[in-house]
Amino acid sequence: MFGKDFPQLNDDLLRAIKQTVDQSFLNFTRSYGDTIEWIFSPLAFLLNASERMFTNAPWPVVIAACVLVAWLATRKLSVCLFVASTLVLIGLFDMWENTMKTLSMILVSTLIAIVAGLPIGVLMARSDRVQRAINPLLDVMQTMPSFVYLIPVVMLLGIGRVPGLIAVVIYAVPPMIRLTNLGIRTVDADILEASDAFGASHSQKLWTVQLPLAMPSIMAGVNQTVMMALAMVVIASMIGVQGLGQPVLRAINSQYFTLGIFNGLAIVGIAMAIDRITQGYGARLQKHIGAQNGSR
Amino acid sequence: MAPDNLCSIAVTSLYKIYGPDPDKSIDLLRDGVTKEEILKRTNNVVALNDVNIRIPSGSIQVIMGLSGSGKSTLVRHFNRLIDPTEGSLIVNGVDVMSLSPAELQRFRSYQTAMVFQRFALLPHRTVLDNVIYGLSLRRPHVRDAVDRGMTWLKRVGLEGYEKRYPSQLSGGMQQRVGLARALAMDAPLLLMDEAFSALDPIIRVDMQNILLKLQKDLRKTIVFITHDLDEALRLGDQIAIVKSGEIVQQGTAEQILTKPATDYVKSFVGEVNRGRYLRVEAGMVPWVGGTTRPGLTVPLGTTLEAALKTMAEHETASVCVLDERESPAGTLHLKAAIALTVR
């Protein structure tokens, strides 16, 4: 019948393509693997330091620090209470150590996503050409199933925290970049013109007008990045990232329903706590900036 | 027109054309092709067409026109927020077109300051931080920026509001912040782009009074853009009327009111209360009474409206005008006053 079989490339050719790509990547890994590992060694150091800090700190200190952060960011008692009770519950149900490891991972990956994403977002906002070049890349990063890019990362760096961190950052950085770009592009043109008229240089405009006014949008990006990083915790545990993902993975393999649900709920609790903290901070930033529009 | 060296701003043959091939359109304009024809033939929009203007220093120059006339485009050339397609621009003795980007920033920071129609305050900064915004951009740092900011806040009547945020102030107060921010720069040229147009009528008159009062001490060169003829007549030492990218008339309020150059200007001034802006000088005849003491008197510079009111109150048909030394300069007759006021 017409149109039943698609006229595909012949099998030998397809096999040759796959083999060539695989082989050249393998060669690349063999010759440069050590170098690449060396390049990423600062990340390993950062991860270890952060994890030591979280796991070695006495639990009352950790809870107090988290509550303090919540208070400084939101000035809301309800958020502070939520953070404290979530952490206490997690501790009572014997998930403290894993939670600390996960928090450490989230902290480091978010920091890296900000450090990498913010400048890229700024560059995108500065030039339409950069935006056109980067946007499709972000689309790929967000839609490509994360298992797929775990493969080359593992081939290059093996199993462990650093490849896990890289996978998490690849998955979590796009909203940071996009929302920074969006925030800067939507800064009120009148205010930007005023800044020009008073003799601001490019960098003065960036620091005094564009970044501060884009801050609510940038904070939304940070919020999204944290949420996506948390969503990657379980997947990253497959390549050796420790934390709340590992018990979930074990629960899937052995069908331990309760173990799965406890650790799952712990992830949800942390996600909600961080979400409220970052959203609350974003709302406080917006207080003066948003109300300005009332006058137009 | 005043000689160039006394001018704060000298604009010669300024063209601004938006579109794919601006240079060709200038040639077409010089050949006498109309703007409409150019739009049809080249898809270029002529925003400013051969603008020539000399603005003397120390006075208020109003540039008046309806929306789309090009008045805001013109004022943005003075600090090069917009680059002209062609033409020469001398501001405070500086050829603005020859400045490098860094020189231009410096020029904007020290020679010009601007007030905007929609205030354009920084919403995340307090009132005081907004006032010193321009100063904070200067390098080296301005040491007494906060003191200067506080001084100007006081002068525009916003003492005690320095820690508020713009969103907590009314429109009129926000624009006072905008004015203080511009004045704190202590620049010789102040550009005001429809600065009071977004305000309610009563607040607008308030702001005009504040500006006139400040200008008495400051004697800055102020370029004031407006679409409101009343505002133009109240504020302007000199008025230029702009229509579709061309200046149709330049002159004092009296010249605009008594000798409108085109039907377009005539249609504008027809709507205005002339007695409020024309002064007794426009209608008085020389004093013929010698040294005899006049009866009813008004000083030079009195508006016709006020003179008429004085005459009506005293039920006389003429009034004597006194000069600065209190000696009689002329006589204003009721008939002449009415003829000038009612048209």
TrEMBL record, chain A:
Q: Which residues form a coiled coil?
A: none
Q: State what protein this is by name.
A: Proline/glycine betaine ABC transporter permease
Task: Mention one GO biological process in which this protein takes part, according to its record.
Answer: glycine betaine transport
Q: Does the keyword Electron transport apply?
A: no
What species was this sequence derived from? Mesorhizobium denitrificans
Q: Indicate the family of this protein.
A: Belongs to the binding-protein-dependent transport system permease family.
Keyword annotations: Cell membrane, Membrane, Transmembrane, Transmembrane helix, Transport
Q: Where in the cell is it found?
A: Cell membrane
Do you know which Gene3D superfamilies this protein is assigned to? Answer: MetI-like
Q: Tell me where the transmembrane regions lie.
A: 53-72, 79-96, 102-125, 146-173, 225-244, 256-274
Alphabetized GO MF terms: amine transmembrane transporter activity; carnitine transmembrane transporter activity
UniProtKB/TrEMBL annotation, chain B:
Annotated keywords: Amino-acid transport, ATP-binding, CBS domain, Cell inner membrane, Cell membrane, Membrane, Nucleotide-binding, Transport
Q: Which residues form the ABC transporter domain?
A: 33-269
Entry-linked InterPro entries: AAA+_ATPase, ABC_osmolyte_uptake_ATP-bind, ABC_transporter-like_ATP-bd, ABC_transporter-like_CS, CBS_dom, CBS_dom_sf, Gly-betaine_transp_ATP-bd, P-loop_NTPase
Ranges of residues in domain CBS: 291-343
Which Pfam families does this one have?
ABC_tran (PF00005)
EC class, as a word, reads translocase
Name this polypeptide is given: Quaternary amine transport ATP-binding protein
> Which species is this UniProt entry from?
Mesorhizobium denitrificans
Lineage summary: Bacteria, Pseudomonadati, Pseudomonadota, Alphaproteobacteria, Hyphomicrobiales
